[in-house]
Amino acid sequence: MRLERRETVPLTLVATAPLAAVVAALVLAAGLIAAAGVNPLAAYGEMLRGAFGSRLSLTEMLTRATPLILTGLAAAVAFRARLWNIGGEGQFFMGALATAWIGHSLALPGLLGMAVLMICGMAAGALLLAGPAFLRLRFGVDEVVTTLLLNFIVILFVGLMIEGPLRDPLAFGWPQSVPVDSAYRLADLVPRTRLHMGLLVALAAAGVVWLVLTRTVFGVETRAAGLNARAAAFAGISLPRTIMGVALLSGALAGLAGAIEVMGVTGGVTTTMSPGFGYAGIVVAMLAALHPAGVVAAAVFVATVFVGADAMSRATGVPSFIADVIVALSLLTMLVALLFTTYRVRR
Amino acid sequence: MTPVLELSHITKRFGPLVANEDVSLRLGQGEILALLGENGAGKTTLMNILFGHYEADEGEVRVFGETLPAGKPRAAIAAGVGMVHQHFTLAGNLSVLDNVMLGSERLSRIGSDRRAARKKLMAISERFGLPVDPDARVSKLSVGERQRVEILKALYRDARVLILDEPTAVLARPEAERLFETLRGMTQDGLSLIFISHKLHEVMAASDRVAVLRGGRMVAERATSETSSSELAELMVGRKVQRPVRQDHAIGAPVLQAERITIVEEGETRLEDISFTVNEGEILGIVGVSGNGQGALGALLSGLMAPTSGALRLNGADVGQLGPRGLIAAGAARVPEDRHAEGAVGEMTVWENAILERLRSAAFSRFGFVRRAEAKAHARELIQRFDVRGAGPDTRIRLLSGGNMQKLILGRCLATGPRFLLANQPTRGLDEGAIAAVHEELLAARAEGAAILLISEELEEAVQLSDRIQAIVKGRLSEPVAAGEADARRLGLMMAGVWDTQDAA
């Protein structure tokens, strides 16, 4: 038996690969659910109801999807250029921290202030990834290691700040940062739910990223550099500039996710505000085959699993950790599915 | 003549592709058979079936009258078939003797009998006239010597039928001639040989019989003495193909000048004190055995490497430090050595590849956005003007054949009417039809006044196209000779690094 590269990859195969991966992940996780003594179909039914069953559950799911869209875009943009940004989590927190800190004492009119805060969050995320990108370009340091390790450093740094200089004096001793000024809180998209305008920002970001990747000189250069760095260099495309540009864009998107989460949901920063948005963004990007439109769909899937698993846990007693298992399994099955889209198996 | 080897009615399919269709072949005792065909004609597939790397869908292989079990290289070796691959399969960190012994001893043996092995190797070496130092490390050997080790490896396994896949692909002309002399001598010792080639001259010079494959079918078999190069060329391509001929015309002023350029990279001298001039309307050919600095010369003229010392001038301006974009803007165009690795991004479309070098020019972008309509129109124009087949602007360029991809890359270069063109191995791996097309375009550009530097390992090509020729040896350049004075002997000497003595004489 051996693998043979396909001459062309039919579009239907590209579209069905993520679906097949998701189904495979759910089937595999069904084994674990059954082992917990629950009928998997019933459990998945609860999960769907928990994410789509009511107005509240639907808006909760979309609230979760909002930062996932942005961290998913961050990973997709970077991976396309073969910049392995595993630091979405750290960039998310830096964006959140910068937004809370500056937004606490900013004195600008509402909308302008919001825009400024989002830009601050983006800048913070971008700067955090600029470091590893520089180290890779200058010294050949593997960015997988640097970005991953930075996540832990950043979370410890956030802990330091919210225990210290940015501690909220009104939080009764809870480790929480000062909140952004209420003038800069994003309005509710659906009244009396947590769903906020940030979803529209995330969707707009997906549109902008698509436009940048497919229609601009920068986008074509990025794709060329990612697909064949030697040919890109031969054609005169500056690889360092492309990589740095991609790093700034990717970090900015993850930072924006943090900014919006603070402005729309939490107000201040806590070290527990992210259930792994940055890491889940990698899964989202892979399930989306690195396509911006796919990122939106994949973010909805991952959010469904996260939100639905809580409901399932309450109804059936299966631990909600199954959500992490399903998300992780879907990354693995997607990698297998990608193998089968690029190669065919021969005897 | 008794057949030592017989292939009968071999058919092999890869999905919808038929690589071999009903091919039958006989090899007589002591015979040299050339298997001639273009790239993709199915030569290598056929030999891989014979050697057991592939299983044929239909047909069988008989060696000395015995049918070989399909798909078992070990059985082929045991039956006395040896194969010398185009890409060597030697371990560079081991000695010649180790390499030859490798895999010939049973795994269950304790210790290895090096003394007996050495004795056997030396006996073979002497008998077939293939001198080697059994203790030399393979990584220290020249390409020609490595090939000798490959052949010895096959003979050590008692091969009586030897298959050589493109044996001269990596050899300089004199080395290739020596190889064929050796092979000829070996047949007198009872060996029978098949060699695969797409080079007509060596087929004519070295074989007893020729089998021509085209599109997976055996189209002709000829005794070499009863055929001619032109007949073989026609059989191989399936129609009459003639390479265009260079017309004499007046040569203009200098366009590109290299002045005493040295390039040192990571402590190693890649180019040493080289100087040359390419004039308007002139093709300067750089010949040499691969690995003698062509890579660095190509990188220099592509803008990927800057001179450590010396100057590169294009129309008088120093362009050595400009990088690819600056060099292109200054009027240079480049055909890279490896079109898949450097010339094109396979997964991108034809139109994207067509403008990749000029993405940032006003013609193809505005406010940072790509002007897609203009870019696609440009791609369509290139496709039409340079006769690129099987592609539209939105086709992924990976799906193009080598010849068509090369025509597109050449078109991308020539569309701007460049002052200087680097053509680095422009026909490597192309079939006869595509070679003629590429030559035609190069000569047309020359006629329009472009200064062209041609780097080639194909002597015929260099002599046919170039006005003057210089040889590159170990990073140094010989003095130029006019094409008219460049006979095979003189070029062979130049490529071997013998030119100082001639200058003195």
UniProtKB/TrEMBL annotation, chain A:
Pfam families linked to this entry: BPD_transp_2
Superkingdom assignment: Bacteria
An example molecular function term from Gene Ontology annotations: transmembrane transporter activity
InterPro entries the UniProt entry points to: ABC_transp_permease (IPR001851)
Keywords, in A-Z order: Cell membrane, Membrane, Transmembrane, Transmembrane helix
Locations listed in the record: Cell membrane
Listed GO CC annotations: plasma membrane
Transmembrane segments: 12-41, 61-79, 91-108, 114-137, 144-162, 195-218, 239-260, 280-309, 321-343
Membrane topology: Multi-pass membrane protein
The protein, known as: Nucleoside ABC transporter membrane protein
TrEMBL record, chain B:
GO MF annotation list: ATP binding; ATP hydrolysis activity
Key words, A-Z: ATP-binding, Cell membrane, Membrane, Nucleotide-binding, Repeat, Sugar transport, Translocase, Transport
Keyword Transport found: yes
Membrane topology: Peripheral membrane protein
PROSITE patterns in the record: ABC_TRANSPORTER_1, ABC_TRANSPORTER_2
Gene Ontology CC annotations of this record: plasma membrane
Subcellular location: Cell membrane
Superkingdom of the source species: Bacteria
ABC transporter domain span: 5-240, 256-499
PANTHER family associated with the record: CARBOHYDRATE TRANSPORT ATP-BINDING PROTEIN MG119-RELATED (PTHR43790), GALACTOFURANOSE TRANSPORTER ATP-BINDING PROTEIN YTFR (PTHR43790:SF9)
Official protein name in the record: Nucleoside ABC transporter ATP-binding protein
